[in-house]
TrEMBL record:
<keyword id="KW-1133">Transmembrane helix</keyword>
<feature type="domain" description="ABC transporter TMD0">
    <location>
        <begin position="34"/>
        <end position="150"/>
    </location>
</feature>
<dbReference type="GO" id="GO:0005524">
    <property type="term" value="F:ATP binding"/>
</dbReference>
<dbReference type="InterPro" id="IPR056227">
    <property type="entry name" value="TMD0_ABC"/>
</dbReference>
<feature type="transmembrane region" description="Helical">
    <location>
        <begin position="29"/>
        <end position="52"/>
    </location>
</feature>
<feature type="transmembrane region" description="Helical">
    <location>
        <begin position="126"/>
        <end position="146"/>
    </location>
</feature>
<feature type="transmembrane region" description="Helical">
    <location>
        <begin position="64"/>
        <end position="89"/>
    </location>
</feature>
<feature type="transmembrane region" description="Helical">
    <location>
        <begin position="95"/>
        <end position="114"/>
    </location>
</feature>
<keyword id="KW-0547">Nucleotide-binding</keyword>
<keyword id="KW-0812">Transmembrane</keyword>
<dbReference type="Pfam" id="PF24357">
    <property type="entry name" value="TMD0_ABC"/>
</dbReference>
<protein>
    <submittedName>
        <fullName>ATP-binding cassette transporter subfamily c member 1 x8 protein</fullName>
    </submittedName>
</protein>
<dbReference type="GO" id="GO:0016020">
    <property type="term" value="C:membrane"/>
</dbReference>
<keyword id="KW-0067">ATP-binding</keyword>
<keyword id="KW-0472">Membrane</keyword>
Length: 165
C-alpha cells in the first residue's frame, strides 16, 4: 500500500490554487481535507457533547419514527463505509481508505450519540444538525467540482469528435 498522498503535498496544493481553470483541480490533500472536515468536527466536539448529555438526568422517550430513522440511517451509512473500506483496501487506494474509515468511525459515534440523546430525553440535536450540515456542504462541493470537471471533459471530447468528422 502506498503513501496517503503521492508526490509533494505543498506543490500539489499550490498548483491547484494557481490553476486558471474553474473548478480548480483538487489536490490529494484538498480532497482529504474536504472529506475529513465533518468527521474531524465530530471527533473533536463529540466528547464535550457526550459529557453534556451524561450530565443530564435520564428521561426515557418513547420509541418514535424520528429516533428509529436516525438509527437506521446511521447503521446503513456505517455498513456502506465499512464495505467501502474493505473494497478500497483490496484496490490499494489509501487516500479514500482513510476517508471512508474516518466516516465509518463518525457514523458509529453518531449512532452512540443518537442513543445517548434518546436515553436522556432529547429528541432533536443541534450538534448532529451542524455535523450533517457541514458534511452535506463539503460533499456537495466535491460533487459539484467533480461534475463540472466531467462536463468539461465531455465537451472537450465532443469537440475532438467534431473535428474528426
Amino acid at each position: 500500500m502506498g503513501r496517503i498522498c503521492e508526490g509533494n503535498i505543498l506543490e500539489d496544493w499550490q498548483e491547484a490554487w494557481r490553476s486558471p481553470e474553474w473548478p480548480p483541480p483538487l489536490s490529494c490533500l484538498q480532497v482529504l481535507l474536504l472529506d475529513a472536515a465533518p468527521c474531524a468536527l465530530m471527533l473533536i466536539t463529540c466528547p464535550f457533547y457526550a459529557w453534556y448529555l451524561l450530565r443530564r438526568p435520564p428521561e426515557k422517550l418513547p420509541k418514535c419514527l424520528n429516533f428509529l430513522t436516525k438509527m437506521m440511517f446511521s447503521v446503513a451509512l456505517t455498513i456502506v463505509f465499512v464495505v467501502q473500506c474493505f473494497l478500497l483496501q483490496q484496490s490499494g487506494e489509501p487516500v479514500y481508505l482513510v476517508v471512508y474509515a474516518t466516516w465509518a468511525v463518525a457514523t458509529v459515534i453518531t449512532m452512540i450519540l443518537v442513543g445517548l440523546e434518546h436515553s436522556r430525553g432529547q429528541a432533536r440535536s443541534f450538534f448532529l444538525f451542524i455535523f450533517w450540515l457541514v458534511a452535506m456542504g463539503s460533499s456537495l462541493l466535491l460533487v459539484a467540482m467533480a461534475t463540472s470537471r466531467e462536463v468539461k471533459e465531455c465537451k472537450n471530447h465532443a469537440g475532438n469528435v467534431r473535428q474528426i468528422y
